Inverse folding.
């Protein structure tokens, strides 16, 4: 029970390419810093059109909700140099992130349950 076969590949996940940055970050729980280091997110506090992110290494970032920002592009294209050693992002989360695809016309919009039509 609970044993997974070593050759099992992670499930492919599809999200819309132009989804809002806050929804994407809230789902993925990863943040690429300007130096290219991938951090794990502990908390996200949305304040209007901005949000304050606290990582597991206790760094805080104030971000703006932009679909074509540097961070949004880096998350969609999976660009990062290394993973933060202090945040200790688990290997399963990196594998799940690497099996995520962003398509323009296919995938989840990451809408909340009350916003779905």
């Amino acid at each position: 029970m609970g044993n997974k076969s070593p050759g099992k590949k992670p499930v492919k996940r599809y999200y819309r390419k132009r989804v809002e940055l806050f929804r994407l970050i809230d789902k993925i729980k990863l943040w690429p810093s300007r130096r290219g280091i991938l951090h794990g997110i502990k908390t996200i506090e949305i304040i209007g059109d901005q949000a304050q992110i606290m990582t597991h290494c206790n760094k805080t970032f104030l971000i703006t909700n932009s679909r074509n920002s540097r961070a949004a592009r880096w998350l969609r294209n999976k660009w990062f140099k290394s993973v933060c050693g202090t945040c200790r992002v688990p290997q399963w989360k990196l594998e799940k992130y690497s099996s995520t695809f962003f398509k323009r016309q296919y995938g989840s919009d990451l809408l909340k349950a009350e916003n779905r039509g």
Summary: Strands lie at 13-16, 30-32, 37-47, 50-55, 60-64, 82-83, 100-103. Residues 32 and 72 are 9 Å apart (CA to CA). The chain has a mean pLDDT of 86. The first strand starts at residue 13 and ends at 16.
